Amino acid sequence: MQTATSAHPAVRRAPRPRADALRNRERIVTAAREMFTELGPDVPLDDIARRAGVGNATLYRHFPDRDALVREVVCSVLDRAVLAGQDALAESGDAFAALEHFVHASADERIGALCPMVSSSFDKHHPDLEAARERVERIIEEVMDRAKAAGQLRPDVGVGDVMIAVAQLSRPPAGTGCLSADRFVHRHLQLLLDGLRAPGPSVLPGTAVTMEDLRQA
């Protein structure tokens, strides 16, 4: 006598990553973020593995090539900026203070150091990157819209204006080290933020820069 079989076979669940594997992945991403910032996107992967305290085989098991690792680092930095924006909105009752918190926290992530990486030959339109960029755009818009609604942020600036300024000011000038320039970043960011307060003392040339403008640039 045959046993009846189910019309809906059990779905085999993919095994969850082990805790030590997740820790190794996080160590690799952290080490890569630090070394890309300090030495540029072409730093040898073997050096990244050494700083992370893992073997080369472990690094390549998580990230089969440089593009995969660069993409993960970029997404990680963008997601950390999103968390900073969420914290700013949750913790600060002052709308402009939330914008200040977000801008300074984004600079601490050294978003400007991503520029050489995202301008490299890897796929800038990868779904993970697109999703991370959209999350950043949404949180910046929310922070800025709140400050504008409170009458604290001048209305003639756009999300792109803030992103350009943060990226440029958190990226060291040519010929200087990223770490040595860090002590100037927050001073200059605060000068920028003071210039964003409403009412603006002057009329800005051109129009507010949007994220679409940046994508088309």
Rounded to an integer in angstroms, the radius of gyration calculated over CA atoms is 21 Å
> What is the CATH topology descriptor of the largest domain?
Tetracycline Repressor, domain 2
Question: What characteristic shape results from the CA principal axes?
Answer: elongated
Counted beta strands: 0
Instruction: Return the average pLDDT rounded to an integer.
Output: 82
Characterize the largest beta sheet: strand count, sense, and whether it forms a barrel.
Answer: none
Percentage of residues in DSSP E strands: under 5%
CATH superfamily of the largest domain: Tetracycline Repressor, domain 2
> What is the top-level CATH class of the largest domain?
Mainly Alpha
Structural class: mainly alpha
Order of helices and strands: HHHHHHHHHH
Total tally of structural domains: 2
Helix content: 55-70%
- The number of helices is 10
Low-confidence stretches: none
CATH architecture of the largest domain: Orthogonal Bundle
Terminus-to-terminus distance:
71 Å
Describe the overall structure:
- By secondary structure, this protein is mainly α.
- It contains ten helices and no strands.
- The protein has two domains: 18-64, Arc Repressor Mutant, subunit A, CATH 1.10.10.60; 67-216, Tetracycline Repressor, domain 2.
- 64% of the residues lie in helices and 0% in strands.
- Keywords: DNA-binding, Transcription, Transcription regulation.
- This is TetR family transcriptional regulator.
- InterPro entries: Homeodomain-like_sf (IPR009057), HTH-type_TetR-like_transc_reg (IPR050109), HTH_TetR (IPR001647), Tet_transcr_reg_TetR-rel_C_sf (IPR036271), TetR_SbtR-like_C (IPR049445).
